[in-house]
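Hi V.,

You were right to ask for the full record rather than a summary. Here it is.
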Amino acid sequence: MTRAIRFERVGGPEVLQLQTVELPPPAAGEATIRHAAIGLNFIDVYHRTGLYPLPLPAGIGLEAAGVVEAVGEGVTEVAVGDRVAYAGGPVGAYAEARNLPAHRLLRLPEEIFFDTAAAMMLQGLTAAYLLRRTYRVQPGDAVLIHAAAGGVGLIACQWARALGATVIGTVGSPAKAELARAHGCQHVIDYSREDFAARVRDITGGAGVAVVYDGVGKDTFAGSLDCLRPLGMMVSYGNASGPVPPVDLVQLSQKGSLFITRPTLMTYTARREDLLALGEELFAVVADGRVRIEVHQRYALADAAHAHRDLEARRTTGSTIFLP
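Predicted structure:
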């Protein structure tokens, strides 16, 4: 038996319930992980509200770190006692322990602690595929990163700066502006007070940016297109403010033959070799200090509903974890 957060209907944070559930031995190809820390991410809200539907009743959560307690038949990727972390499906990370397909697990370097790993896996692997695969940032590129003080934003700003980019970020408050500046963001725009598209044009001398990384969605999408240089890349990877409305493709030609994509971590890490490669890049930049992972909030697993309320109210910054 183990304890896990589950929900039987979609809705507000109150639907999240701590339950005692069965934990069978790992099946063939699986490993049992005893969690030391669990990550909180906005996609968890999408699952809870039904924006990204799950078969109900369901568990929740997509990242955690811990120790392998047992392995099923045929497992070669990890061994009992290994320190591991993971991000992505299947859902169910809000638990004291769980079984997972072993091919989704990454061995942790000794210099990366469990709290750090749980705080960085989903957000860090997201930053990795955004910056190194979806649009490969080059020295001299100007990039726009929305929600620069959020979990993905703080990692992406540091990483993009280390790659030699001019980093422009948007935030929603003066406090978050200071946080973004402290994490590599050279030009910070408070979109609650400024027209961010006009400011981006000013900063870039009218040229626009090579790429926009937009996890905000509805509130920033239209303005983001106006920030791009000709042949620029619009990367819409989240919907924190709501789903993006339908796109008129003619706008892309009118605004400079723009590219647009809606990527997911699950696609970019579907093959184990891709997961291992992105994980290696992420671990390297964290281990050598180019990217600092800061856990700004910690909650008990039983307080999952409280954590979701804080996240949706934008009372959180950086990374948040649960301690089982």
